[in-house]
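Researcher: We're teaching a course module on how sequence relates to structure. For the next exercise, students receive a sequence and then see the predicted structure as tokens, so they can try to spot secondary structure elements on their own. Here is the exercise chain.
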Amino acid sequence: MPTKRCPHCKDVALEPTQYQQEEVDICRHCGGLWFEKNEVNRMIAEINDSPIGEKYETHFGKSLGVSELDCPDCNKSLERFHLLEDYHCEIDVCRHCDGSWIDKDELEVVANSHELKEHLTELNEKVNWKTYLFQFLTQMPIEYNIQPQKTPWVTYGLIALNTIIFALYFLSANNFSFVLEHFAMTPAKISQGEQLWSVLSCVFLHGSVMHLLGNMYFLYIIGDNLEDALGHKRFLLLYLACGLVASFASFIVSPLSDIPSVGASGAIAGLFGMYLMWFRHASLTFMFIVYHKKLSAVWFFGIWLAINIFGALSGPSGIDYSAHIGGFILGLIIGFILKEQIYTQNPIIGLLNKPFAKIKR
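Model: And here is the predicted structure for the students to work with:
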């Protein structure tokens, strides 16, 4: 049998090896792999724990023309394709013997191509009249993101806890005043060393029904993905940390203020920062009067941050913009520090954040 040569390295012989229970040929010099007919399909089926179905070639994007590489089996020129219509990682295939040459850095992408296709189909759904009507009536965005693999029990628990606490004090004028007096964060009291616990207790209080609904809605739509990526315990700890930093940011900006501050929005702003760093492939719908469009997380939260900075510079308004900005900055820092770890632990998130992914908005 003739020795197979690496299409890239030319004079380097390929060596048989095992990958996902398939015998394939590897170049020890560049790490590329040669998959003969149907070996890629069996590998994908093995990874996804499913029977071999339609060939992965079925979902290739457009042909990019003849490759500079030659087939290790028949020595004919390979042909270049985008792996998927919406994932523009280039794959080299032989149209004569149905083999596939996969570079070392392409292997993870090909192995997860089935799952990537499913997620990209969901991410690229068009907005419809139901989405438009919902946002027009509620002024709340719709999220387009991958489905979490784990039930977000902490997110649900935080929503339930905030709602129960609000119901217990809001319906009674006396209780409402008592709670604000003792558990809302008042910077002037903190400056005097009083009610230090309020920097955390205030995160679980809200001033009105709409205040509660708005915060809990945003916690609901972004909390599930973050909890899925971080795990339950770490998600809760980072949520509380963002809430604390948001309270301290509010205190530092106005240490003598006697206006009580309440709300989970500072903690949720921290989640915004992490979400922006890890889920750039996600979209959130934005409505300006009647104009409706999907925006990337970067644009959506960029607009949100600009509104908060403008509000903070405009003077007192009853909204604690400094808490929002403080929580958001901490979220960005956490997101940057943990980004590579999150991508390693959640490969699909990492792959969707590569420039190969083409998100339609």
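Model: If you want an answer key for the exercise: Residues 321-345 form the longest helix (25 residues). The mean pLDDT is 89.
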